[in-house]
Amino acid sequence: MAGVVALVVCSNVMSNRVLPSWLYVLWNAGVAVVLVVIALRVDRLSLSDVGLGRSQLRLGLRWGGTLAACVAVVYAVGLAVPTTRELFRDKRADGTGWDTLYMAFVSVPFGTVLLEEVAFRGVLPAVFAHRMSRRAAIACSSLLFGLWHLLPAANINRTNAVLNESLSGASGQVIAIAGAVLSTAAVGVFFCWLRYRSNSLLTPILLHISTNSLAYVGAHFVLRP
Fold this sequence. Notes:
Blueprint: H1 2-18, H2 24-41, H3 54-80, H4 82-85, H5 97-129, H6 134-148, H7 156-159, H8 161-166, H9 169-198, H10 202-223
């Protein structure tokens, strides 16, 4: 268990502070594979234990596809309403159309979502559940998911225009980081619930991809109307 947690922590530091951006996807995808291998070989778990059994993937496709469609509808409405449209304004999407496509459909799915879901909704809850109750396992993995966002959230109030206006300065940055950690921990609990409710890791994977990738696309259109 300690080895899995250590690998996740090391991966976070490497991808956010050490490795060049062009290695982000390859590194995170590779770590996701290594985590699954460790779960199978060291902890003697099965693919079903981490939510990746064949029948589970079919269930997840139905659940996740439905939820992703709901996200698309909500985002479309949000972009159409002037009041909420500004919430999509994010400087990270201020690139070319190709940059946005890469971020939305390569970097996010295979660089961000794959590792986060495999680690925090697949492997860690299953590994923890062998040593504690499922509720405790979900709580621990979700807390780690929140802490995982400490480094990525360092400049969150500078990249989002709305947060930049309301949370400026050093104190604003602290509040923004704390909010990011707490909110992502809460999201982690919800995603874990989805993973076990649908009996498939693919469900939170598809929901996670839709929320992040479609947000990038929406931000691109807000910044470049």
